[in-house]
Design a protein that fits this description.
- With 171 residues, the chain is mainly α.
- It is built from 5 helices and 3 strands, in the order αβαααββα.
- It has a 3-stranded antiparallel sheet, with helices on one face.
């Protein structure tokens, strides 16, 4: 008997199977990219958000070329189903990301969806959006070894930097 792992071998599959077919997959991705440009932060199943991320980043790369570039305009016209967002893409988002070389989106995992499927959910957002950050700051506890060592080092440095009173003088 031979054991095989069919899920780990891709055999030419370069993307996830989303929707009911190729056209449905493209429509789903276009709607997600449009929603991301409009709202700058959306919630979606992890697989969809992860798949859409590359297309959104590539669209922003093209937008950075400017609205006079024919290829950039064709890409924006294809990927954005709401044509009023083309102006936002070129005049708001492209200048925001102009100094950055890449990685325009942030993908964060959130708790699984309630209901029958318990799908793994994610929030995908454009960096630099006006919303408050989702990442909760980590509270460093004083009980870790590294923090105890740093605390001792700081105390030693403060003692060394404090002016020493000469012997026999009242303080």
């Amino acid at each position: 008997m031979r054991l095989s792992v069919s899920a780990a071998i891709s055999h030419g599959r370069v993307h996830r199977r989303l929707g009911l077919g190729p056209r449905s997959r493209l429509d789903l991705l276009r709607n997600l990219v449009t929603a991301l440009v409009r709202h700058e932060r959306i919630e979606a199943p992890w697989a969809r958000a992860d798949e859409m991320r590359g297309y959104a980043e590539r669209l922003i790369e093209y937008a950075k070329l400017g609205d006079t570039n024919e290829r950039a305009m064709r890409m924006a016209n294809f990927w954005l189903t709401e044509k009023d967002l083309i102006h936002k893409l070129f005049k708001v988002l492209a200048p925001r990301f102009q100094p950055h070389p890449g990685s325009y989106t942030r993908l964060l995992q959130i708790p699984n969806r309630d209901g029958l499927d318990r799908a793994k959910m994610a929030v995908i957002e454009l960096k630099g959006n006006p919303f408050p950050p989702l990442i909760c700051p980590r509270r460093d506890t004083e009980k870790t070894l590294l923090n105890q060592l740093l605390k001792g080092y700081r105390e030693d440095m403060q003692r060394a930097a404090a002016p020493q009173a000469p012997e026999g003088t009242p303080v």
